[in-house]
Design a protein that fits this description.
The protein has 564 residues and is of the alpha+beta class. It is 31% helix and 29% strand. The protein contains 17 helices and 30 strands. The strands form 9 sheets. Strands 6-7-13-10-9-14 form a 6-stranded antiparallel β-barrel. Strand 4, helix 4 and strand 5 form a beta-alpha-beta unit. Helix 2 crosses helix 3 and helix 16 packs across helix 17. The protein is globular and about 100 Å long. The mean pLDDT is 84.
Length: 564
């Protein structure tokens, strides 16, 4: 019942041009099955790759009356290059022709790709024949998918960006891992943005977990500043790179020197430097958040065809400056390179899993005294010492530059240290002898200081200790350099309280109740003013505060009493 073709031109021409989206709930299941419909025409292969890139599985559709077409071959080449292994073959329009021949041809083609042997179904959207079989097959395909990772770091490739009146910029994408919450901060297009709202298949939600199609309403970025191919990421959790060492599905010497790299929803030009028969160095013009194991593909823009599949082997490779460096690097990537210790010292910090995926033996690392094991991370002693020194410097710099807020946030700390793992930060904080309270880092015993306004605050505190209901006037606060920001900081630190338009000592309410309890009950505002030795400017908001917290109660017009 859904029409994925969103544009009038698509419906007029009867062909998909851009990405389309649809979803359903299969009979007897609770999870939502979501589809990204991609165009087939060669002119729109870039759009097709943007939809295919983040997908965990593919439903490959061939028409019974048309059988295998050129666009089928192009789509399968993309699927194969991305290394997708889970799929379903559907032969449609079975009411127009015998689906048997098309099934046989398509099965044979798919079997030679990364998909291998997949389940196949024949169906007709017009008559409904085979649709129950299709729904059942889709359910079995879902069961083959790996379990979602709801606590992973966010990397959401943007496939649509638009503006909504009254809401601002909205982007959509396929959330492959992690959970998004309203109010979360993310990094996008080189800036920090905040999630204003979330939608999952048209429903507003407070949180969205992988795997899901999501719409994200962003605060802090204009519509024209974010577009398809951009990516929303967890702040400080990724290290964007412009250099990749990769394994290709073809000999890199057969490729043009410059091709297009398609990864996620992005398509960027890259330069290819061959290293060996199947290994190459890719140089990107813009930094992308890529990691070991990512799959991508190269497209030849001249021939408008998929040129090679790509598997990222190293997203932080060394420079190739010396003669023969390419051959040495190829040997390293092939598994004949340095041992684990040498690799950790070169990178500074790396996970055990990344080393193992590189084919590096990690067995002898326990004997290396210059390498520390921090959770799943292996860190060189030099890098660890650098982190400790840099964190202490960042904390002290925060206190010096911002005495009102001397604690360093986690995000600022990760940026200062260029940390990728959140668990690493906690370990560095402990090693540096710092305190982490409420997500903010500082030296033990350090509290916020009002800097040049501190003497004024101390004078005010001394006065309120002697005359607790003698609230300072505006000119007095100005004389003591206590502006709105300083007062707000003192309130947040518990050194003052705000009562209406006046500020008093934190124990003012308790001391007021104690004094008022001693006078005749009920009492007038005038009697309270005399008992507190204060002015109407202070007493009226203070009494209203006591009313609000239930310490006093009205008896009659103009009369209050202390509540029991």
């Amino acid at each position: 019942g859904m029409e994925p073709d969103r544009w009038a031109e698509e419906r007029r021409r009867g062909m998909t041009i851009d990405l389309g989206f649809a979803w359903t709930v299969l009979p007897g299941r609770s999870e939502q099955l979501e589809f990204v419909d991609v165009p087939g025409h060669q002119r729109f292969i870039g759009n097709m790759l943007a939809g295919l890139g983040p997908a965990p599985a593919v439903m490959f559709v061939v028409a019974a009356d048309e059988s295998w077409r050129r666009q089928s071959e192009e789509h399968l080449a993309a699927v194969d290059a991305l290394g997708l292994t889970r799929g379903l073959l559907v032969v449609t329009r079975s009411d127009l022709a015998d689906p048997g021949p098309a099934l046989e041809v398509a099965r044979a083609r798919l079997a030679r790709s990364s998909l291998g042997t997949v389940e196949a179904v024949a169906a007709s959207g017009l008559t409904g024949a085979g649709l129950d079989d299709l729904r059942a097959a889709l359910g079995r395909l879902i069961d083959q998918l790996p379990p979602p990772v709801p606590d992973g770091r966010i990397r959401l490739w943007v496939d649509r960006s638009f503006s909504v009146r009254g809401a601002g910029t909205v982007v959509t994408g396929t959330l492959g891992a992690g959970t998004l919450h309203t109010g979360d901060e993310l990094e996008a297009a080189g800036r920090t943005v905040r999630i204003r709202g979330l939608e999952v298949t048209g429903r507003r939600v407070d949180a969205a977990s992988a795997v899901a199609r999501v719409g994200v309403n962003l605060r802090g970025v204009a519509r024209e500043d974010i577009r398809r191919g951009d990516v929303l990421v967890t702040p400080g959790a990724w290290r964007p790179t412009t250099r990749l060492d990769v394994r290709l599905t073809v000999d890199p010497t057969e490729l043009p020197g410059d091709v297009m790299l398609h990864v996620g929803t992005a398509g960027v030009p890259v330069h290819v430097r061959p290293l060996s028969e199947r290994l190459a160095r890719l140089t990107l013009p813009v930094a992308l958040p890529l990691v070991l194991g990512d799959r991508a593909l190269l497209r030849d823009p001249g021939r408008q065809s998929v040129a090679a599949g790509v598997e990222v082997l190293d997203a932080d490779p060394p420079s190739l400056r010396r003669r023969g460096a390419a051959a040495v690097r190829a040997a390293e990537l092939a598994g004949a390179g340095p041992d684990a210790a040498a690799e950790v010292h070169r990178r500074g910090a790396v996970t055990r899993a990344d080393l193992e995926r590189l084919g590096v033996d990690v067995g002898g690392l326990a004997e290396d005294e210059d390498i520390l094991a921090v959770g799943d991370w292996l860190v060189s002693e030099a890098r660890w010492s650098s982190w400790v020194v840099r964190l202490l410097a960042a904390v002290d710099r925060q206190a010096e530059d911002h005495p009102l807020t001397p604690q360093l946030s986690h995000e600022a700390a990760r940026r200062a240290l260029e940390l990728l793992g959140r668990d690493l930060l906690a370990a560095v904080v402990r090693a540096a002898g710092l305190v982490d309270a409420g997500g903010r880092i500082t030296r033990p015993g350090r509290t916020a200081s009002l800097g040049s306004a501190e003497p004024g605050l101390q004078r005010l505190e001394a006065r309120l200790a002697e005359r607790p209901f003698d609230a300072p006037s505006g000119p007095e606060l100005e004389e003591w350099r206590l502006g709105p920001r300083e007062i707000a900081t003192a309130v947040s630190l518990g050194r003052l309280v705000r009562v209406g338009d006046v500020v008093l000592a934190p124990d003012a309410a308790a001391r007021a109740v104690d004094r008022l309890r001693r006078i005749d009950q009920p009492f007038t505002t005038s009697a309270a003013r005399k008992a507190l030795d204060s002015t109407r400017r202070t007493v009226i908001p203070l009494l209203e505060h006591l009313d609000a917290v239930g310490a006093t109660e009205w008896v009659d017009a103009g009369l209050r009493r202390i509540a029991d």
